[in-house]
Amino acid sequence: MTRENLWKSYSEKEKKQIFKFAEEYKSYLNAAKTEREFVTITEKELIENGFTDINKKKTLKKGDKVYYNNRDKNIVAVIIGKDIKSGINMIVSHVDSPRLDLKPNPIKEDEEFALLNTHYYGGIKKYQWAATPLALHGVVYLKDGKKVTLAIGEDENDPVFSVPDLLPHLAHKIQDDRKARETIQGEELKLLFGNMPVNDKNVKQQTKQMIMDKLKKDYGIEEDDFFTAELEIVPAGKLRDVGLDRSMIGGYGQDDRICAYTSLRAIYEVKNPEKTAMVYLTDKEEVGSEGSTSLKATLPELIIGKMLSMTEKNYNDQILRETLWNSKALSSDVTAAMNPVFKAVHDGENVARLSYGLAFAKYTGSRGKVSANDADAEYLQEIRQLFEKNKIKYQAGGFGKVDEGGGGTVAKYLAHYGIKTVDAGPAVLSMHSLFEISSKADLYETYRAYRVFFDLK
User: Fold this and answer.
1) Cβ within 8 Å of residue 144, ≥6 positions away
2) Chain-centre distance of CA 2, in angstroms?
3) By the 8 A CB rule, do 215 and 116 touch?
């Protein structure tokens, strides 16, 4: 395992390679601020790398590269190995991130402001979302069936949106005695959407009317169309280098798109694997993996069953169950890095550190290992031997001190099928914030580790 900061051992040539990789990563995430956008971009890239929609195939053979797009919210990429039944090497990440969603009836007027009603998605510190520039992304279906795609607030000429905060001069009675998580309350997450009224005395809500008129003119959207909309509020702006040495990356959505990106880059380099290789990008992890695009859904059975039915003459459900049981996975999610300001929440001997490589978590979960997958020693030994052989930089870490708190991943849902599973991803600072921070060294070493994992026998 890594025992010191990786930057100490890199040559200048390696540093240049790492920095180049980081630029490509930043560009990808800048264009993919939501799970839908990530899937759309990834599908195009899969096709460019020789992958075919599995629904266009009738049979499969060794070396075939296929993908499955599930409702534009999650996507699975596969390279067929020698014998699918012997098990699949899969890397599973999620592409949803904490955010604000719009309510079904989002637009209201108050004090001549047009406001958007929101409901937060996932675990956030609500106060972080106030008094900061925000962007609106998503899709809306119009009454005539037309699909409108929005991404407002990313171009430098776009307007942005913001949740108004209370000035410190007047916050004493309203906010100062609130607990930190309630400094801004859920119903106070109202988005400023306009302040210009129409000049029509016959209209009761003149500012709202101005906004609705503009939505109709620019996008064809009417108020009833919000019923069929899927609109998300995310931080406006791009990922940035952090630190005078540019060793870190700051920005939104790195939990967990840093793992999704590196796993994709890894599978693109796999050629004729002995074991079937799979990258599984799931949705809804941040809300407990609920819904038809999450890992709790039966998509793993559907996609693997489909693959087996296209390769096995006498396919049956038992073959599917045995294939799942023979499979091995990395539950690829980020973990908490040692925070130099809030060290007290960590166990210093059992915490991941920035720039120490891919971080393994034998288990995650809350107190008493509740809701955790506890990876077995035999599987960890397989991983260790593989990584040591290939000189992969990795570390072991935990989420925090015992009884301090905890978090979950999709590992337990993979383990439900009997898949050997361990959590493995880079450590980040400021997780679930609008500006998460990762290490460029960890980004690159995670990619290297995922590439080697596909060679696991």
Assistant:
1) none
2) 26
3) no
